[in-house]
Write a structure and sequence with these properties.
10 helices, Helix Hairpins, Beta-Lactamase
Length: 370
């Protein structure tokens, strides 16, 4: 046997509802309100009858009532979810969400405006916390961005300003090479040129890293009309000059035009060959190969030596990662990161194979862009 529903006391439902009820005259005065609302405001209900409802709203609530709620009621006869602040007898405020509707007679005459109000203390506090959190996050993100930009602009300017004295050193060393020097003098000049070359490569990598992090990315000047082989041959010759004690074998079979930035591909090749000189076994040759197939250009640089551990291979192309290096080896750990960025800019990819036989870096890209 099912339970029968108890009879509801409508008068009690109105007076003690879990929300505030108020009825207003067309002039905005209180015609009736329930005990719940009177209790919220801390005033006797009888005292509030026939008084303007605006008297019990905060200054902001009055503005919202007059400029938003009242006009919308006149236009459409009902309004939903208007935020108001009620003014309590002790001067405190209660945030509420109000819904309002007009009651009209058969002749269309405006008789009453009925408002239902729900406390929104927790909701308004949550909204304020969300706004404050968003504001803090925006300020923190802006501050972090400004610091990051300033830091990387400093790096870029520093790298740019270092080029001039290095260029002067290189020019002076080349002039001295033309002079009649002692054996020791020739050795000193050779070491100077190698140091200048190494410093120039470091600065180039720092500048490219700064450009990438500043959002512009690496710029490319693609051209498939000029041959790529002379560029790679020049890079191999430069590395041989810097590392005369290392055997570097080159084999280039580039039979098709490659739509690329030749200077950037040269930079990629130079970084890979320099990496092989630094990390490869000194007694084993470095092999540099490049070729074109049906629709791709491939560059391979391999060397013998200790294999690269699997955990290190996963981070090889991360900035500032150097792995295990000898104390005599110099660098910032940007060379392979720049290699990866150049490969991505060309729509290509880098692959690494490393085992007991060899370590091989493979760069491949489409012959034509897009």
């Amino acid at each position: 046997m099912s339970d029968s529903l108890p009879a509801e006391d409508l008068a009690d439902l109105y007076e003690n509802a879990p929300c505030g009820y108020v009825s207003l005259t067309p002039g905005g005065r209180i015609a009736r309100l329930n005990a719940t609302l009177a209790g919220w405001l801390g005033r006797p209900a009888a005292e509030m009858l026939d008084r303007p409802f605006n008297h019990y709203l905060s200054f902001g609530g009055r503005i919202a009532f007059e400029t938003h709620l009242a006009p919308l009621l006149r236009l459409q006869g009902h309004v939903g979810e208007i935020a108001l602040d009620l003014l309590v007898a002790d001067g405190t405020k209660i945030p509420v969400i109000a819904n309002a509707a007009e009651k009209r007679g058969a002749d269309g005459r405006h008789l009453l405006t009925r408002l239902t109000m729900f406390k929104a203390v927790d909701r308004r506090a949550y909204e304020r916390e969300l706004v404050a959190a968003r504001t803090r996050a925006e300020h923190e993100a802006l501050a972090e961005h400004e610091i990051s930009v300033l830091r990387e602009q400093f790096i870029a300017v520093l790298g740019h300003d270092l080029r001039n004295p290095l260029a002067a050193l290189a020019a002076g060393a080349r002039m001295l090479e033309q002079e009649k020097l002692s054996e020791r003098g020739s050795i000193v000049i050779g070491e100077m040129m190698r140091s200048v070359t190494r410093a120039t490569a470091l600065i180039d990598n720092v500048l490219d890293f700064a450009r990438g992090r500043l959002g512009g990315g690496l710029t490319l000047d693609r051209d498939d009309r000029a041959p790529l082989t002379p560029v790679l041959e020049q890079i191999v010759s430069e590395v041989r000059a810097v590392a005369p004690d290392r055997a570097i074998l080159a084999d280039f079979a580039i039979a098709k035009p490659v739509n690329c930035d030749r200077a950037r591909i040269g930079q990629l090749a130079g970084n890979l060959i320099s990496n092989a000189v630094t990390h490869g076994a000194p007694g084993l040759p470095i092999e540099v190969k490049a070729w074109t197939d049906e629709d791709s250009f491939v560059l391979s640089v391999s060397n013998g030596g200790i294999p690269i551990p699997a955990e290190a291979r996963a981070r090889l192309f991360h900035p500032f990662f150097r792995g295990a290096v000898r104390r005599s080896q110099h660098g910032l750990g940007l060379g392979l990161f720049i290699v990866s960025e150049i490969a991505k800019a060309h729509g290509g990819r880098m692959d690494v194979i490393s085992n007991e036989s060899e370590t091989r870096f493979l760069f491949s890209m489409p012959l034509r862009s897009g």
